[in-house]
Amino acid sequence: MSQPDFDVTTSRAAPLHPDEANRLRALRKTGALDSPSVPLLDQITKSAARLLNVEISLITLVDAERQWFLSRHGLKANETHRDFAFCSHALHAREIYTVEDASTHPTFRDNPLVTGDPFIRSYAGAVLRDLSGLPLGTLCVIGKEPRVFSDGELDILKELAKIVRRDILTIAARDQSEDSRRYDPVTGAFWGDSFYNAAKRLSSELGLQHGASIICSTTIENLSVIADTSGSSVTDRVIEDVGAKMQSVLESFGLTLLGRPDGKRIISKTVIDTEADPEKLDEVRAALMSAFSDGPALNEGGLTPRLVVAVAQRRTDLRLEDVVMMCRIASEETEKRDGVSSVVVTQSIERDVLARIRLTEDIGTALDKDQLHLEFQPKLNTRTQSVTGCECLIRWEHPTVGRVP
Prior knowledge:
By secondary structure, the protein is of the alpha+beta class. The chain has helices at residues 20-29, 39-51, 86-90, 112-115, 151-167, 176-182, 194-206, 223-230, 232-251, 278-292, 320-333, 347-368, and strands at 56-62, 66-73, 79-81, 96-99, 122-129, 135-143, 190-191, 213-220, 255-260, 265-271, 307-314, 340-344, 372-381, 386-398, 402-404.
């Protein structure tokens, strides 16, 4: 750790935790100190700052002589001296520690982080504990103006801290081989099925009190052509640009997870504070269209990415995988054009996908109850008007749907 360029002896430092030795052992056991950044935690700090309307949000781990940031938003430094850390004081709180105006607070008014950059005025920190209850650090928000945090704002902070508390012992300690399986190296999004696992965990932690969610899918229709024409570096730049713009736009609506289930698609789940009515869906669609209108210019080969944006509401009675499928089908059925096309998933598409899902679930019963049968039909040569062979088809007489095409 670099030494501070100010006199730490002038600080009103927090007393050590009563069980400091075991607390430090528990902290180091997590493997989280000095670990690589974690996309999910970075999204949580960004969302905390947005939801509580502050400039800075941090996930802090309080080490022996320093406060290190596992994730940070709005602050360039990756650590501060422990003696000046507000979070060192928060370790002694049961759940939440707040400061309304640090400039007049007897403990903090002479703190260099108050009298100088970043000029802290208001602070709220939710304590992060290990499984034994020892405090490791906080999820905190910092404002540059004095303020009183409302009960509702503190409830949001506590809910987000639950996610961090759950994941800090697992996600932060992951090794590099696991990284390569879980995260897309180009966008930082969750790769493949890991997106669905992370999204389900997020829903479980937040519960229904944080409203509905919106699912978006952006397909780069001509990605293979771009790759063949301009090479992998340009292809990666296009994918990175699409992911970054999705993240930036959707974070203004709520806590957002990005996923990349396959090569040419980037999907997202955004938890919003209100119901995802048609007007909200159209607002999200329009915002993405506006962001993508300034897409990356591909001078190599003169190609422009052809994007299709699909937006859908995630109802609580629908699986996330099914809503993503709805977005994919809506994208496939949308008229393509150069630049950006968009579609909001309609009720007819939703009914069609749900019908397909039900049929897929019924196929086992069809086999057991002998609902499938073979049909043979001739193959005709229309030029010679002769039969050239036959083909065998499997037909399904569904008890309620009828013949399945």
